[in-house]
Amino acid sequence: MVTKTQQDTGLEAFEQAWAEFFGSVRRSKGRQAQEEGDLSFSQHYLLAALADHPGMPTGELALAAGVSPPTATRMLDGLERDGIVIREPSEEDRRKVTIRLTDEGRRIVQRKQRQVSARRKAVYESLSESEREQAVRLMHRLAGLIEEL
Predict the structure, then answer these.
(1) Is 54 left (phi over 0), alpha (psi -120 to 50) or beta?
(2) What is the pLDDT of residue 33?
């Protein structure tokens, strides 16, 4: 039988591990954006959604990338200024503006996707076979739980 004290200790350990994990992810994202001098991770997720679904309006793009519409708009302002995206009136609905990648934008997104993939592979290779299997199961489980929050 688990006592209240054991449960509290387990919860504290979980909360510390959670904070440590997500803190390391945030710090890593910041370091990589500074080191590489190209897309931030937020920009990458926004543009990856756009690469998968060209011509999305800003609101749908924001939802797909997990950012607020005003944040997406600010990011797109800078990306448009840098020649990475183009905003155009929608062909179906003149009230909407669609976004698409420029040729340079596609190259930048592909380069960033290769960098992210290489980093994931490095993490994967640093784990034992057992840890890899556990990580896959646990990440799927946590993703489902977080979606429910």
Answers:
(1) beta
(2) 63
Sequence-ordered list of residues with C-beta below 8 angstroms from that of 102, at least 6 positions apart, any chain: 83, 84, 85, 86
Tell which residue, 59, 40, 70, 138, has the closest CA to residue 98: 59
Give the pLDDT confidence score for residue 37 in this predicted structure. 57
- Contact yes or no for 26/47 (Cβ under 8 A): no
Question: In the 8-state DSSP scheme, what is residue 122?
Answer: H
Q: Which pTM value belongs to this model?
A: 0.76
Domains in the chain, ordered, with CATH? 39-148 (1.10.10.10)
- How far out from the chain centre does Cα 138 lie? 19
DSSP 32-95: HHHHH-S--HHHHHHHHHHHHSTTEEHHHHHHHHTS-HHHHHHHHHHHHHTTSEEEEE-SS-TT
Contacts of 73 (CB under 8 A, 6+ apart): 58
CA distances from 65 to 8, 35, 120 (A): 35, 23, 19
Distance CA 13, CA 34 (A): 32
pLDDT means per 10 residues, the chain with 149 residues, are 73 92 82 67 87 87 90 94 92 85 93 90 96 96 91
